[in-house]
Write a structure and sequence with these properties.
The complex is a heterodimer of chains A (515) and B (334). With 515 residues, chain A is of the alpha+beta class. Chain A contains 18 helices and 13 strands.
Amino acid sequence: MQTKIRLYFVVLLILSIGIGLILYKHLILGFPLLPDDKTFVWTIEAKIDFLAQGDPTTVSFALPPRAPYLTFMEEDFASPDYGFSELSLPTGRRAQWSKREASGAQTTYYRLSLYENDWVTDSPPSDLPPAPKQPEFDEVFKTAALTLLEQVRAKSANAEIFARELINTLNSTSPSQNQRLLLNDHADSDYKTNLIVNLLAMEGISARVVRGLYLEDGRRRQSLTNFIEVHDGHQWLLFDQDSGNSGKPENFLMWQRGGQSLLDVVGGINSRVSFSIIRNVQSTRNLVVRSSMNKQAGLIDFSIYSLPIEQQNAFKMILLLPIGALIVVLMRLIVGIRTSGTFMPILIALALIQTTLITGIIMFLTVVSTGLFIRSYLSRLNLLFVARISAVIIVVIAIMASISIISHKLGLSQAMVVTFFPMIILAWTIERMSVLWEEDGPREVLIQGAGSLLTAVIAYLFMTNRIVEYLTFNFPELMLVNLALILILGQYTGYRLSELYRFHSLERRNDTGKR
Amino acid sequence: MILASVKKLRSFGIIGMNQRNFGLVSKYNPRHLYPLVDDKLKTKLLAQEAGINVPQLLGTLRFQHDVKQLKEMLEPHEQFVIKPVAGSGGKGILVISEHDHNFYYKPSGAALRLHNIERHVSNILSGLHSLGGKPDAVMIESLIQLDPVFSDYSYEGIPDLRIIVLKGYPIMAMLRLTTHTSDGKANLHQGAVGVGIDIGTGAALHAVQFGNPVSRHPDTRKIFSELTIPHWDKLLPLAAACYEMTGLGYLGVDIVLDRDQGPMIIELNARPGLAIQVANCAGLLPRVAVIEALSNLTPDPQARADFCKENFSTTLRMLPPRKHRTRATDRTKK
C-alpha cells in the first residue's frame, strides 16, 4: 500500500510538472496548442520625403507606442548619412534623424514588423485627461457652435452618446446652416478632428486625436487616419470621426495619441510621409520561439530549439518514440495483442513513416515472406545460430537491394524506400518467426505477425498525425505526461481485452452450471 | 457472445494476465530466486537434495564443441529427452522414444538423423530457446514411462500435472494431456487438452482443448469423467514441499507420473500461466483470497495439502462455498 501511495505521488508530481510546463508555454509564452495557428505578420514601411535646403536638418517622426497585445519583431531605421536617435518622450516615442548639412531631395525610412498576440486583449489607455481647454472662437462661429451643441445635448444622456451624436450630426448628409459654417467646405480631416475636439471641450468633455493606420495587405502610399478618443469620466473611448462608430476597428494600428505632430522637419520643405503595408503569414510557433529566444526565456533557451536545425529534425523523430511506446503498452496490457519482440512494432512504425503506409506494408510483407522462405532453406544447412542470423541479415540486404533494383527498372520509384527498414530488426523478426513456425506452427506466426503489424500501423497513425507530431516536438514536456500515463498503466490489473475472449467459454459454463 | 463480460469474470474470480504479473508473480516471487527455477539443472539438484524424485540426468552439454560427443553420449540410451536448461514453456524439448543405428524416432514416429539432433542441440546452446537469447546449456534426461492409468488419455506423449502452489498451499491443479495436434507436447496452446483436477480427490472436473470444452480425448475418444489421478494423497504434499525448496510464493509445479518410479517433479515455473482457470472452470482469486487471509501458515507440507483438500474440493459441493463467493459478489454489488 505504501509503495502504491508513493507511486501515485510520483505520478501526480510528474503529471503536474508536465501539464504545468505545457500550460506555462501556452499561456505565458504563447505557444499555440494546435499546429494550425497562423499569425499575420505586418510589415509597415514609413517613407519620409522632403526637400532639404542646405541647412542643418532635423527630422522628428512619431513612432507607434508599444502595447502588450502587439509584438514588435523588428524595427529598422534607414537614412542616407543621418545621425539617428530614438527618443522616449512622455507624449510617446519619436525617431530623430539629423544632419549638419543636407540639400536636395531626401528620403528616410522607418520599417516595423509586428503581429498581434491573441492571448492578450487590448486594454484602453488608463491615463487621466487634463481638463478640457476652452477654444477661442469668433462670435459667429461660437454662436453656431453653441446652437449645435444644444441640439446634440437635447438628444443625449452622457458623454459617450453625446460624442457619437455630435459626430453623426456633423456628418449628416443634409447639414444645416450652422453645420456648414462650422465644417467649412474645403477643410481636411485634421480640421474636422480639431473641430470635434474643440466642440467637445466646450461641452466640458475631454477628447484627443488619435492617428492610426488601417492594416491592409499590399497597400502603398497610405496615410494615417484620424480618430477621436473621448474620456467619458471613467475610460477612454475611441470614435471614428467619419462614421461615429466606437471601438477600435480590426487591423487598425494606433500610431500616435494626442495632438503632437506626426512629422516635424527642420531645415526642409515639402515634407511628406507615406506608408506601405505588406502582410506575411507565419506560423505562430515560429514567432513565439523567436520572441522567446530574444526574451531569453529559460525554458526555451535550454530547449531543443537551441540545437542546430539538423539535430532538431532528429529529435522530431526521437520525441515520437514515447508515443509509440505508449501504444505498445496499451496494445499489450489493455488489448492483449501478442507481438513478436516487444518494441519491434515501433521500429516498423518508424520505417513506415519514411516509406508511407501502403508501400511500407507491402515492402515489409515482401521482405519478411521472402526472408522466411530463404530461411527455411538455411535451416536445412545445419548452421550455428549466430552464423545463421548473420546469414539472414545478408539475405535481407540482398532482398532489399533486389527489390530496389527491380522496381527501379520497372519505374516504380516507391519501392526504393525499402532501405528505410531496419535490417537487423527485420533479420531478427524473420529468425524468430521461422523458429515460431517450426515450434508452434504457422497459426502462431500469423497471430504474432498480424499483431505486430497492427500495433505498428496504429503507432504509425498516431506518430504521423500532424497534431501529435506538433505537440511532441513543441511540448517535449508531454513526455512527462506520457511517462505518468505509462506508470499508471503499469498498475492496471484488470482484464485484457483478449482475455475476455480467452475466458468467454468459462462464463458460459459457469452460467449453465449454476442453473 | 464473443467477449465475456468483465463483471462476470470478476465475480468468478478469474485472474487476468496483468493481475497475475502484478498481484502474484511480482508480489510473491523475489527476482533473485528465479534462477532456481529458470535453470532446470539447479532445480533438479535442489529437488534431489530435498529427496524429491526427478528424472535421471543422462548428461549435459555446455559448449558447442561438446556436440561431437553427442553420439557417444546417446548411444547407451534407448530413450531420452533433450531439453534446454533455461528453456521456458516447453520450448526446445525433443523426445526420442526409440533409436536404431542411424535413425532416432520421435514418439510420433518421425525419424531424425544424428545431424538433425546435433543441430537442435547447437541451437539450444546458442540460446534460441532461452529468455533473451542468452547462451544456454543442454540436458539429456531419461524418458519418463507412461503410467498405465493415462495410457487411454494420452497420445504420443507423457501427460503432466500442473499444480499451482501459493505460499506452499496447492490451490489448483490441471492435467495436461498430449494429443495428435499438440505433437506429443503437453502444451495447451499447441493443442494439448487441459483437464481441471479436483484438489480434494484428484478426479477430473472439466476438460478443454483450445479453450473449448471437450468431454472425450480427441484421439483416444476416452471419456474424461472416469479419470482420477492415482497417488493423489502423495502428490499434493510433494507439490506443497516445493515452496520450502525454492522460496517462491507463487509457483507452478509440473509433476509426471512414472510407471516405475511414481511421481516426479520435472519442472518448476515462477510464472505459471492462467489456462488452468479455463480447465478448472474456476477463478484463482477466491482461493488466493483464502490463503492470503490465513494468519498462521504451517511449515508442514502435509498439513497444507490437507487444508487445501478440505477447502478447495469442488466435488463435495456443486457450487463454490459461500464464503469464497462473498468477496467477489460484494464488490460487484457496490
